[in-house]
Amino acid sequence: MPDRASILGLLPRGTLPVGAGLMVVGAGSYAHLAVAGHTLPASAMAAMAVLWSVVYLLALGVFLPVEQEMSRLVAARTAVGEGAGPVVRRGAALTAAILAVMLVAIAAAARPLADRLFGGDIAMVAVLASALCALAIASVSRGTLAGQGKFGAYGRQLAFDGGSRVALAGALGAAGLRSAVAFGLILTIAPLMAVTATLGPMLADLRPGPAAPWKTMGSRLGLLITTMLLAQIIINAAVVSVRLLSPDAPALAGAMLTAVVLARVPLFVSMSVQTSLLPGLAGAVSADDQVRFRRLVPRGCLIVTILGIAGGLPATVLGPWLSRVLFGVRPILGQAAFGWLAAGTLFYMLAMVLGQAAMSLSRHRDQVLAWLTGAAVLAVVTISPGGIVPGEARLRVVAAYALGSFTAALALAIVLMVRAPRADRSTAASHTAPGPHSLGRAVSG
Questions:
Q1: Where are the domains of the chain?
Q2: Which residue among 224, 260, 330, 365 is buried most deeply as judged by most CB within 10 Å?
Q3: Cα dist from 255 to 51, 133, 233, whole Å
Q4: pTM for this one?
Q5: Per-residue pLDDT tens over the stretch 328-355
Q6: Largest CA distance in the chain
């Protein structure tokens, strides 16, 4: 039965249950960081801040593409009544191979990573590796659930993840444990518990189907991983950048993380739109429903714009006070920094929606170029004191986030204006694959 959002016709199907789950996992993340901020000393909180940023840079940059590709391919098969079991097995095997490569690289660079990012604590590198393992498993589970249209189970997994974070962080805080390693391990334990809790719904309807050749998923996955790594560099660079640019100010890294997560409040909500939007776009492309495709994209942009403004204004005005009250950090960053971060989050959400539309049309190379341009702008602004945004490193890194996100969104908007299907053009004229469902064949590889 469609959820209320789809009945109203205002949001993609699945937005409400996924949104509810994201609200819980978002609250759990904030509780996790709040307890850590009030419990850990500045040096340990700096290590925790960098761990958080690196985990999500790598996990979302590498494993979210796998989740999205699985969601896209499972949705495309579901739309034509084909079993998705082979796609899920291929996705799981590919995820395991990618994870193995990442773990080998982390092991080889363990000592430099510990010294530059974690104040010499080698145990934090092990925590980083374990968190990546957990999030790799979660990406396969969530990609399958989203592609099957089981957004209720998807939302429950997110909610269980968030609830586990609250319980675990609360227990550590009550025990007075002042260990960055202990708080960091929550990033491993909570996702694994959540996957276990929703394993049944994921496996219930997996059916055999046509074989899924490696090229079905792998042909464009490299481009998608590149895209998402660039996107995650843009959204997570601020914390790592201030840690590297100001190594003698550990409190700044913790303050930057709390500012970033406060500015990202709208992003937690918008992810429900994005999670349910991609299968909707993929289904529209598979069915050659160009009218639906062209209706979903601007609707998604409008929703995230409203969310960005509604969340960004309070974050800008109240951000310094909230950082001190909620997270126990000194008000190092002012309202100007929060304003840049709020603007960057708005542009980032728009870029994500536009990027999903480009991906559903198999415009993976165009998406890479758009995010590469945004990352280049971010790098130039970050490393050029006295240039585009003169001032301290803390101001440059937040301005770089906003300008990099804006550049990526603008580039993707141009891609869609040029490449999006039009109702007055035949599918055959736009794609090389023959037949009445050539758009669907393009999606499914």
A1: 4-422
A2: 260
A3: 14, 28, 19
A4: 0.74
A5: 777 788 889 999 999 999 999 999 889 8
A6: 66
